[in-house]
Design a protein that fits this description.
Chain lengths: 326, 427
């Protein structure tokens, strides 16, 4: 049985590119029979067609289908109008989910960008920067699920009289006299922030690397000129370096916003949304796979899409403008 | 190689007719999805070994604690495992009605199954007259585990007559400076289920089996005084930080498979641990030097209403079939045999629902004791949360987590459960 599956995998991996090559070849030989002027008119559309078709099947159709499902009942047999959305915006437990996404949105991109920026600027000036950068970047190589498991161990709680097996509690107990261990993931005043920290730890490395690249791209001459004009180091940072890095900061920021709106793995692995830590993506997964409620799951999916779209548009617009400048 | 083809022909008919084990070498493989991990997985691997040697069938086991979601995903995607442990009878009924489960009537030898299983077990695996699930192992729930030596040293009794007696003992221990209960309800996506066991046993031993049935069938509102009283009774233990080791932070953050550890520390940090029979395997794995019966033992949770002393709650792991292959059929019939089930019993991972596994086959004093409690119980019920629809069950789990975190929110928690009850049950 695994042989047939392997055979299909080979067919898919080799077959699809081969089919596309055959298509291009067929298009080109077909175009030869047209007048040269017509050729130029038709060629882009024919070349685009397979891509557009794939997009339509794998992206546009599912999106529209999800939209339709979100207006239907749990088993998709009855039209319920906006009832699924009304449920999301009026039930208390659902409002907690929405609140949490806003909390993540407020904390995560700001914390990650500012930390990444600080590390990029500071390490630029020391000789052992490779060490700092490597250790900050390493978490990027770990899967989110593994990170969740690691941090679950790090956040482990033991009562004050027992040996502390969780790294965080052990460290704090050793450093701060009289520190009482906390159940980081189960204390409702801490757990959301504890989860956000994990994702920050994961992403700060990437933010740092991209921002560092932007920093390297700044013309040394500009900084030199500012220095000769008598600008202080702080002025150089605030008036010269930061403004020049702004476009990169915004791109990193928007990417992080999209990441955080879709946050799922960390929450799923570490708390599964218990004690007021649920987020939209995790709730959507539960509605779908635990409750078989296609209506509500689709409503959540649609909400996420609507929330992410403006951010994506901003990113795409900036992308386009840069292209013009070049 | 021509063996698979020959095997197909050989197996087309007689597979189920052989009770003790499938015939000769079949080869091929069977995929099984389930929840067994740790000590239970070790036993499962031991159990699989003789089957693999006899039949040449490779058993590919995939374990997950988020069984409900994983199974739903695989089934919806049209890529189900051959066999799967089913999350609950509620989920089984749901899958069977949607035509996803194979009718085992055509796969297993029903007459033989009826010789091995009490009718009650067969009924539990039957949906709309079709047998779709069998129980390879069972557990007795509602047991209080303890260390006989430390209990004796503390002057506590191992046979409190009523729930209030137990509570009085607990308070006596607390006055001496030891938190008597060690509880842990963390279990990944299923966190909270330990608490549902507590509540079910208290419910059964407060209101009796008739009300209990009404409750899991969704006919009794969660906001009713009966249900609320049960939560409040449990709250006397779980909501009192002087009675529970580490208070609510420990209860919430400790995995069910490690929660008994404080009982066995020197000096003990707790005396009582509430868990089903299967935990014996976990204790044996964690403390291999300790001897069942001498170093750890259990008594049944005492009744709240003394008239309900002889009542017991059981649960079991259900296995259903999603794809009819000769390998799956052979393995499923093997799981139902006394031979396979003896492994669970020997490993301390639970009891055998197969009555051909006689009491004498139970190797440890403890499993024999559990089997005796079960045999002596006049009123036996199945795990209520497992009988509820998945949505109700999941909501029940997370309600337990919220309650442990903040018992004063009980009314809100019950109101939330009640709103789920109104939509979770099929009309």
């Amino acid at each position: 049985m695994s042989w047939t599956r392997l055979a299909w995998a080979v067919v898919a991996v080799l077959g699809v590119p081969l089919a596309l090559c055959a298509y291009v070849y067929a298009v080109e030989s077909g175009l030869q029979s047209l007048a040269p002027r017509r050729r130029g008119q038709w060629r882009p559309w024919l070349w685009l067609a397979p891509g557009v078709a794939l997009l339509a099947v794998f992206l546009v159709f599912p999106v529209l289908h999800t939209l339709v499902l979100s207006l239907l009942s749990a088993d998709s047999t009855r039209f319920v109008g906006l009832a699924n959305y009304a449920h999301i915006f009026t039930t208390r437990s659902m409002l907690v989910v929405l609140r949490n996404n806003l909390l993540w949105l407020a904390l995560f991109p700001a914390a990650t960008v500012s930390l990444g920026l600080t590390i990029a600027i500071l390490t630029d000036r020391v000789r052992y920067q490779w060490l700092v950068k490597a250790s900050v970047f390493v978490p990027m190589a770990i899967s989110l699920v593994a990170a969740g498991v690691i941090w679950k161990f790090m956040y482990q709680y033991q009562p004050p009289d027992a040996p502390q097996t969780g790294t965080v509690n052990a460290l704090l107990s050793a450093l701060i006299p009289g520190f009482r261990p906390r159940a980081w993931l189960f204390d409702t005043s801490l757990n959301n922030v504890a989860l956000v920290l994990v994702l920050v730890w994961m992403w700060v490395g990437l933010a740092m690397v991209i921002l560092y690249a932007a920093l390297q791209g700044i013309d040394e001459g500009l900084i030199e000129a500012a220095r000769i004009e008598g600008a202080s180091e702080a002025q150089i940072l605030l008036r010269v370096i930061l403004p020049l890095m702004m476009p990169t900061v915004i791109v990193v920021g928007t990417t992080l916003v999209i990441t955080v709106l879709k946050v799922f793995d960390v929450v799923y692995v570490m708390t599964n949304g218990s004690l007021g830590t649920d987020v939209i993506a995790n709730r959507m997964y539960k509605e779908m796979f635990n409750y078989n409620d296609f209506g509500r799951a689709s409503a959540f999916a649609t909400l996420l899409l609507v929330a992410i779209m403006p951010v994506m548009l901003i990113n795409i617009r900036r992308f386009g403008r840069k292209g013009d400048a070049r | 190689m021509m063996r698979p083809f020959v095997a197909w022909v050989l197996l087309a008919a007689p597979v189920a007719a052989l009770p003790a084990g499938p015939p000769g070498k079949i080869g091929g493989k069977v995929t099984v999805l389930g929840v067994w991990g740790g000590a239970e997985l070790e036993t499962f691997n031991k159990l699989v070994k003789p089957f693999q040697e006899r039949t040449g069938v490779t058993v590919e086991f995939e374990a997950t604690r988020d069984l409900d979601a994983v199974l739903t995903t695989r089934v919806e995607a049209g890529n189900p495992p051959d066999l799967a442990v089913l999350p609950s009878p509620g989920k089984m009924a749901d899958l069977a009605r949607r035509g996803k489960l194979v009718n085992l009537g055509g796969v297993l030898d029903l007459a033989d199954l009826k010789r091995s299983y009490a009718q009650g077990w067969i009924d539990l695996g039957t949906v709309d007259g079709k047998l779709v699930g069998i129980f390879p192992k069972a557990d007795l729930k509602g047991l209080i585990w303890y260390d006989p030596k430390s209990l004796r040293a503390a002057g506590l009794s191992a046979s409190p007559g009523t729930f209030d007696d137990l509570l009085a003992e607990a308070h006596a221990a607390a006055r001496k400076g030891v938190t008597p209960f060690a509880i842990g309800i963390e279990s990944g996506a299923a966190s909270g289920w330990v608490g549902t066991d507590w509540l079910e046993n208290i419910f059964l031993k407060t209101h009796g089996p008739a009300k209990y049935r009404e409750w899991y069938q969704g006919k009794l509102p969660w906001t009713s005084p009966e249900v609320k009283a049960v939560w409040q009774t449990w709250g006397k233990i779980v909501g009192d930080p002087t009675l529970c080791y580490g208070g609510s932070p420990y209860i919430l953050s400790t995995n069910f498979g490690a929660a008994f550890v404080p009982l066995f520390e020197t000096p003990p940090r707790a005396y009582f641990h509430f868990q089903a029979t299967f935990i014996q395997g976990f204790i044996a794995k964690q403390f291999p030097a300790k001897k069942a019966g001498d170093d750890y033992s259990f008594f049944a949770l005492p009744p709240v209403d003394p008239a309900l002393a002889r009542s017991a709650e059981i649960s079991g792991d259900l296995v259903g079939m999603f794809r009819t292959t000769p390998q799956a059929a052979a393995f499923l019939s093997y799981l139902a045999t006394a031979e396979a089930q003896a492994y669970w019993v020997k490993g301390g991972n639970g009891l055998s629902p197969n009555r051909q596994v006689s009491l004498d086959d139970y190797p440890s004093v403890l499993s024999r004791k559990a089997a005796q409690i079960l045999a002596g119980a006049e009123l036996t019920v199945f795990d209520a949360s497992d009988m509820m629809p998945s949505k109700m069950n999941t909501a029940f789990w997370s309600a337990v987590v919220s309650f442990v975190s903040n018992p004063s929110q009980l009314d809100d928690i019950l109101a939330e459960l009640e709103s789920v009850r109104k939509t979770a049950y099929p009309k």
